[in-house]
Amino acid sequence: MLGRGMIGWLTILLLPTIGLGQSDRLQVYFKGKATLSVSGDVPSCGFFTSCPLDESYCSSFWDLCSGGTRTVSAPGSYVVLGGEIGGSFGYSSNAQLTVRLLFSFRYSPPLLQIAGFSYTPKTSLGFAYFVDGVKAGAAAIAVAGCHSSDLPCCESGSASASAMARVSTSVAQASISSSKSASCGCADAELCLDCTSDGGAQWRTDPEDSSGYRGYKASSVSFRHSRSASHTEELMGFISLSGSSTECGGALSVGAAFAYAGLLLQSAPHPLGVPAVGENEYVWTSDTPAKLEIPARAYAYAWGWEPDLGWFADNTLFRVEPPIESERTQPGFRTIARGRELIAQSRDQYGAIDDLVFVRSHLPPSNKDFGKKNVYFVVEGNKVDYAEVEIFFPPDATNHPPDDPEGYVMLLENPDERCPRWRRLRRVDTPNWFYYYWDAYGRPDRVYYLAAAHGVTQDPSAFYDILNDEIYIGDRVHPVYGTHTVYLFRLERRLDSQGRRRQLITYVDQLEPRGIHQFIALLEHEKSHRKYYTARISRCDWGPQQDPDSDSLPSWWERMHGLDPRRRDTTKAFRFDPDGDSDAVAEIEAFGALERAKKYWRYDWAQYSMQWGIPPSPFPWRYVSSGTNISRYDRYLLRMVPRTGGR
Amino acid sequence: MRYQISSRVVSGLVGSFITALLWGQTPQTAAPKLSPLADEEQWFAAISLCQSSAWRKDPALLPKIEALFQYRFNARAQHGVTVDALVAIGRIGGSEALALLERLETIFHKPYFLSGAYYREHYLPVMKARIQADLAFPQVRNSEQWHQKVERFLQEAELTREALQEALHKHPQRGDPMVYPSRGVVAVRVLLELASEAYAGGVKEALKFFEGLPLERDYPSWLRYQLAPLEVKQRVRWLIGSLTSKPAMRFVDHYELLALWQCGLVALPEILAKIEELSKLKPKDEEEIVRVNIGLANMLEVLAGYEDPRVEPILERFAQADWFEAEQLLRWRRQGLRGILIFDW
């Protein structure tokens, strides 16, 4: 329809669509606003020749009969603008449709309040903003002749038409124009003969093939200061159509602009997952060979259109850093697209399998190979985002590398003698917890796993084999079921058995450590026994003269170090317990060592242990006196054996 | 690219569903839920309960004893509580106790139950045997019945006299209780208890069974054997004499504390008298000072186990005189805790 000078602005505000990302941690929303500005000659109260959009969207356009600007909600993350004007005499119109995309992210931070422990969760979220199907098309048709719609004939005819379309986004653009003209003179103006010129039609597109341009950019938002963040993009389509003709000419201009946008976010492991609250935790299997599976995926958010992620898949990979070695698979060797998902695939001897799959004949050799890692989502070599994960070992399995430390069933050969003589009855597999705790604690020499003790029944918890200078430690310090506690002491002035007021080591508290701390405490306890046996202070064969209370410590030494040589249980800690003052000494030294080893909770990667799930605290020492992780007697607790000099 | 505009709402919903699945990451499995460790008071109370139940032989206490196995005790306390509970169940006896032992067998299989295999192998069969023997011969009136009871007991425990002898031979003389008693030694301790009862009931031959067995290798057995032929008052006197003449306190000496307390209220006047006697002494010789102090500490410890109005004032008096042991005993006593705590019997 020509001849109507019309300036129109059609504004479209796109309706909010579905918030995707339903986890508690992150929600993703989209809101679009479309603004159409029309100037010049508006065709048929609108601007579209075709309507790929829903009815309300289209009708908004068609309702704009007088030109101008109008804004409505956009129903999708795309721009589609088309127009067609044709006729005789002349027309000129411009239309610009700008769709403003607002991607919003709502973040729910994890709640975790633990005394004595602070952590900083990852608060940045990376994503790939991508645009697909970016395409501009323009066509112009011009025809000239001698006939007009009303007689008489024309002496000559001419027409010209041009169309220009442009689409622009932050990552891809397209632009195209097309023009045609025609003219002729009529030989017989009365009969309208001998004048026909068809300039032809020229439909051109940018790009020339059917796919359209595509592109992406990595971007990110931060939740450091706020629980919500947003990212804005614009899609702009522009069409300029013009034409002119004499009375016996005709022009037609057609233009179209397309662009489709979306977001691609890492979906597994969750990029905002917090291992400190039990998220993104993965455990090697207990089998041999051992297997670890980490899902590695990304999800495309597109509103109102269905993306095809094949081109992304070709350029995407997922990888773990620090790397995890796999002997029998090629983890993440490629990425495939399946629906809206990008999925990492690994290759084993049978073919491709989903996700990152690691297979080893045994678990990794060192405790350092477990723990905190990042799973990166990488596009064309650029790290778009990452997820923090934690890798654990199954504590009770025995699929660690087959080297030290060994485990044994022990036999006490001489139960009827004062000094025990132990013999290894048979070798057993050492459980993973023991292997990796031992490894984490510096691989101490001559330390073995005690599976059981025979000969006489013996508490299978721990002992120091004095004849072979070997330490054996059993399930008493199992990461989950362990019930080892550390007895704590201070010096108090009180009466000894000789009626003298002396500084005596006195039991005041107990510490209940967990996980690797239990192991360290018991190991240090036995190491203390080793120290005193090696120094020949502690002996199993002191006679009643040197050691009347049979606690393995000679009287002279006890007097020097705050112990009562006449009481096997000076401290009153071992009242219901067989161990006497030599154990008090070992406990004091174990506590001192344990305090120096507090940081080791960070190296405890046994499933269900200190860093697994949502622990009561990652550093959950509990002192019985206070019920908290600070002892009521903290200032006075003995961390080393005191030298009281008999006073 | 598939521009399925008409189905976008549906695809959005599907997308959100998939995303919810993908992003709803949680730990793969939950950690086993274990109760926190019982504190010192709880396990002190547990042992007190077992010891007092054992001598009352009251089946109504069995549920309370069973409930103890719901607690987690620290490694040092667990053995004491477990053994005391098993011994108490054996002493209470009856079919209900037998059923309880069956249930405990399952608990001893749990991975968190430290040394479960030990209790299954060495304590459970003996306690079951004792209950069976007691059910068969509730009261032994003559030598023949005694022999039948012993035979039944050994048969149920799958032991012989030779096996008992061997077990004692292997038992460490040093009395280190970290070396747990084997089934044979536990059986000897139980048999001695049964023999003491039979002896007290007039079956003097009951103790003959033990002649030739190396009881001295297991102090609780040796002690019970020594005490069995004595009248209660004689026992009290013997034990008080021993406990107040020690040059040092070793672990095995604590069995005497328990034995004295088990003599019951008969011992109380003697203990009170001994405390007064020792309090008035002014020893000068170092060895004598030690004996007096250790003797007094021992007497106070047994005293604290009794329900009697005379107990607290005495403990208070010593506590005020800076007796650390008295302070501690008084504190526990005021928490309602009783009993003489020994580790493995």
Molecular structure report:
The complex is a heterodimer of chains A (647) and B (345). By secondary structure, chain A is mainly β. Chain A has helices spanning 55-62, 310-313, 432-440, 515-534, 555-560, 581-596, and strands at 8-14, 26-40, 68-74, 78-87, 90-107, 124-145, 156-168, 173-185, 196-206, 213-222, 228-245, 249-268, 281-283, 290-294, 297-301, 316-321, 330-338, 341-348, 351-354, 356-360, 371-379, 382-392, 407-412, 422-428, 447-454, 457-458, 462-465, 470-473, 486-495, 501-512, 622-623. In chain A, strands 4, 6, 9, 10, 12, 15, 17, 18 and 19 form a nine-stranded antiparallel beta sheet that branches. In chain A, strands 1, 2, 3, 5, 7, 8 and 11 form a seven-stranded mixed beta sheet that branches. In chain A, a hairpin with a 5-residue loop joins strand 29 (486-495) and strand 30 (501-512). Chain A starts with 7 loop residues before the first strand and ends in a 24-residue tail after the last strand. By secondary structure, chain B is mainly α. Chain B has helices spanning 8-23, 40-56, 62-67, 75-92, 94-107, 116-136, 143-157, 161-170, 183-200, 219-227, 232-243, 254-262, 268-280, 286-303, 311-320, 324-334, and one strand spanning 179-180. Chain B starts with 7 loop residues before the first helix and ends in an 11-residue tail after the last helix. The model of chain B is unreliable at 1-28 (pLDDT under 50). At the A-B interface, strand 12, strand 13, strand 15, strand 26 and strand 29 of A face helix 1, helix 2, helix 4, helix 6 and strand 1 of B.
